[in-house]
User: Fold this.
Amino acid sequence: MISCLLKKTWRFLHIPFLFAYSLLYKFRIIIAEVSLGFLVLVFYCEYLHYNVVIQQCYWPRLSVDNEDFSIPTTNDNRLKVMLIADLHLKCKRSNWYEIFSEEVQMERCFQHAVHQLKPDVIFILGDVLDQGMHCNLKDFDNLVQRFERMFSLPNRTKMYVVPGNRDIGYHHQIDVDQNKDFADGLKSPLVQHLMVKKNNFILLNSMTLGDDSCSLCSVVEEKLAEIEKRLKCSQEEYRGTCDQNLTMPIYSRPILIQHLPLYRTSDENCSDSDSAPWPQNLHEMAEYWECLSQNTTDRLLQRLKPRIVFSGHLHHGCTRRLPQVGGIEVTISSFNWRKKDKPAIGLAVVTTTNYEIVKCQMPRYATIITIYLLGILVILFWIVYSHETRRIFVTK
Assistant:
């Protein structure tokens, strides 16, 4: 019974099978060439192109223009800092294309950049999540595991995260329990004072700066007051007038790390390579939503006197001089292709008395798609050309 069924099946299939085999044999050379072409195209677009683009990135050289001669210099090694903003990882991924076009590409960009540039410390400037307020605890735990896999680091490099509005909500939306889950999962307290190679970094949850007396705001104000006092007591003119526990061995003006930019009216005067295009750069910014309020900004600058402020949130880049206290604010564009076709990371070299910052462009989604389309057209042209050439040769 079975042998009879097999014979009938073979009678039915052997003709198309032999026909397909004869076609494959006849065009075996073209098929091999096309397969090789596609392999080369995929290898370049999915691996080599990242190397080509990121190899153009470099650590900036320090310039005497930014040297602070009012502070005693040290001979410590320079600190290499990488800055990334607005990852917007989704709690639940809906399809394979979403995974490939966002997470896989971000992971490749990040890992190539870390491998080639070898930063000492990395700061992620908020919005790790895309819809953190609607992410349950189980999905959040899974997302943290994905984040740790995508942004895994060698032992020599440290990473720190500050929360954004997509992680815990804007000021009036913050849920205390949700903020605690984010802080515990990604090791991101409300305020954190770090000293890395004698450089002061202040990591701030800017969602809590709302010019009111909310519970989290009070905690942040207390911690900022402690940091302000410690920075003041560590300056040369105040040494000996404060408790010794409040005095740091070396003073350096702090570097402020947060999600929301400081107050500005628009991005009209921003001219970075990843700045907002016209007329989007003329959009008037709303306080509390797109930037901190003017009162909060003035208070932070007066209390902390930062030399650099790094921020994200706007998905476009900007560099501008800080009012009142000198120094600069650098806003980093989104690292997610869904938010920014031309993403960039920040690269900074800092010492206790000097700094220099550049932007490093990542591969563009539009460029990779264009290369794929051009590569497919070249392969199709080669198929026609190769077939016609062989046909003419055989005819002769």
Remarks:
- Residues 58-363 form a domain with the Purple Acid Phosphatase; chain A, domain 2 fold (CATH 3.60.21.10).
- The first strand starts at residue 79 and ends at 84.
- The chain has nine helices and eleven strands.
